[in-house]
Design goal:
This protein has three helices and 17 strands. With 262 residues, it is mainly beta. Strands 3-2-10-5-8 form a five-stranded antiparallel beta sheet. The longest helix has 21 residues. It is rod-shaped and about 100 Å long. The two termini are 72 Å apart.
């Protein structure tokens, strides 16, 4: 028995010496846990609030002259009235009606009153005392002229007219297109996952368009109250989004949602 223990210890000693001097390779099966870096998805909200596209009916009145006289006679010469006036482009583009108004305060009715707008005669008649309104078709730049024909054989006096309150009145409709600018920082843009526009659809009488940076992102009529529109043309820095339609529309709780990794 003692000899058995002696051989056993001798064998263990030999193995130990082999490991120390020559090394021993041990294959051990184990599970390898690899540390992985996980990116966190974050989001940013940009509020636009409620948006309405509605046609507004507007009026504008411009007084060209408070008072002036015109005359024409063989021995008294001819005095007429001429001046220029402009119609602003936004008004002209959306013009519904334009009116030339004036009052004849005094006249001897020896001749006809004539009015020329942009080289076209729009009135030529003997004018009694009173107020006058003439529908006109103006351009951007206009020239109006008032004159009277000669008193003719009534050589003792010229034909005279006293004109007051010469005015231009315009009726036009105006629909302001809602436009919003917003800024996308570099760190969001470079890590952007997706961008979308959310809104509550309230009403619209025609299809409407949503444009981002001059590119149409949506055109139509939503079928559900809550609408989500993916936006593809987002860019780093300043962005411009606009809403347009030939009709009227109303949206509420309009917001931009950006998903990005952090």
């Amino acid at each position: 028995m003692d000899e058995l223990y002696a051989f056993l210890f001798a064998g263990l000693f030999i193995l130990l010496m082999l490991f120390v001097f020559f090394g021993v390779s041990w294959n051990i099966s184990h599970t390898h846990n690899q540390n992985m870096s996980v990116e966190k998805l974050n989001w940013k909200i940009i509020e636009f609030g409620n948006i309405a596209l509605k046609e507004q009916k507007l009026e504008k009145k411009e007084v060209l002259e408070n008072n002036f006289w015109i005359k024409n006679g063989i021995f008294f010469g001819k005095v007429s009235y001429k001046r220029k006036f402009e119609i602003e482009d936004p008004i002209l583009k959306n013009l519904k009606n334009a009116t030339l108004s004036f009052s004849v305060k005094a006249t001897n009715n020896y001749g006809e009153l004539y009015i020329i707008l942009n080289n076209e005669t729009i009135f030529k008649n003997r004018a009694l005392l009173g107020d006058y309104r003439l529908n006109i078709s103006p351009r951007r730049e206009n020239v109006i002229e008032f004159g009277t024909s000669s008193s003719g054989w009534k050589i003792w006096a010229p034909s005279v007219y006293n004109i007051s309150n010469l005015s231009i009145e315009t009726d036009y409709s105006f629909k302001e297109i809602p436009r919003y600018s917003f800024f996308i920082p570099e760190y969001i843009y470079k890590n952007l996952d997706k961008c979308e526009l959310l809104f509550d659809f309230i009403s619209a009488d025609e299809e409407f368009n949503i444009t981002l940076n001059n590119q149409t992102e949506y055109s139509g009529m939503p079928e559900t109250r809550v609408k989500v529109v993916p936006l593809e043309n987002i860019k780093e820095g300043k962005n411009l989004i606009s809403f347009s339609s030939t009709g009227e529309m109303k949206l509420e709780n309009v917001k931009l949602r950006l998903f990005y990794y952090q």
